[in-house]
Amino acid sequence: MHPYISIIIPAYNEEGRIKDTLDSIVDIKEINEIVVVDDGSSDDTYKIASEIKNDKLKVFKLDKNRGKGYALNYGLRISMKNADIIGFLDGDLGKSAKEIRKLIVPILDGEADVTIAKFPPAKKKGGLGFVKGLAKQSVLEMTGVELDSTLSGQRIFKKEVLEKFDEIPFGYGVEVGMTIDILKYGYTIKEVLVNMTHNETGRDLKGFIHRGKQYYHIKKVLGQKKKEWR
């Protein structure tokens, strides 16, 4: 019997990309269910997603913007009912979302308990590498495992891995914190090179503020994990 695979897509103001994202994955035969959680968008994200007619698709809208962590936990309450394998996918990947299949195959083949998407190098200049470097070093320091894509939100999990968490942590340090926990529990993670693209954060004020928040959250999560795992 084939495992039941559910993909959760938290989406906030993605009216320009959500249709392409969903159209690109609805026909992937391994995927049984796609749970879209509109995180209180002020645009037509929910309307556009709801108009796509496909039995795999379940679309929900939160009453207000509550953040990615909340939206993922909302989706998990639905996905955990039936799924053996659960994936997280961003809503802004557009047509490149079809690359999710590359993350599913190693799980089905028993090569890993979790897969993480490794993106090609960014096309436009982003930050100075401080956040990515901190994330990589934090995971290596805590687990002895070197990973390049600890910040990537595109991930596939065996259900048993997610059952270790009462809920997905909130904040920008969520991926780093979860990666540390997963490795400390003894599960295996495989990074998979994908040709995905999404909205990149540039070298403007908004971009630097975003990365500043990321850096702060990762430092905070690292402090927490050092206490939890000592």
UniProtKB/TrEMBL annotation:
<protein>
    <recommendedName>
        <fullName>Glucosyl-3-phosphoglycerate synthase</fullName>
        <ecNumber>2.4.1.266</ecNumber>
    </recommendedName>
</protein>
<dbReference type="Pfam" id="PF00535">
    <property type="entry name" value="Glycos_transf_2"/>
</dbReference>
<dbReference type="InterPro" id="IPR029044">
    <property type="entry name" value="Nucleotide-diphossugar_trans"/>
</dbReference>
<feature type="domain" description="Glycosyltransferase 2-like">
    <location>
        <begin position="6"/>
        <end position="129"/>
    </location>
</feature>
<dbReference type="InterPro" id="IPR050256">
    <property type="entry name" value="Glycosyltransferase_2"/>
</dbReference>
<dbReference type="GO" id="GO:0016757">
    <property type="term" value="F:glycosyltransferase activity"/>
</dbReference>
<keyword id="KW-0808">Transferase</keyword>
<keyword id="KW-0460">Magnesium</keyword>
<dbReference type="InterPro" id="IPR001173">
    <property type="entry name" value="Glyco_trans_2-like"/>
</dbReference>
<keyword id="KW-0328">Glycosyltransferase</keyword>
<comment type="similarity">
    <text>Belongs to the glycosyltransferase 2 family.</text>
</comment>
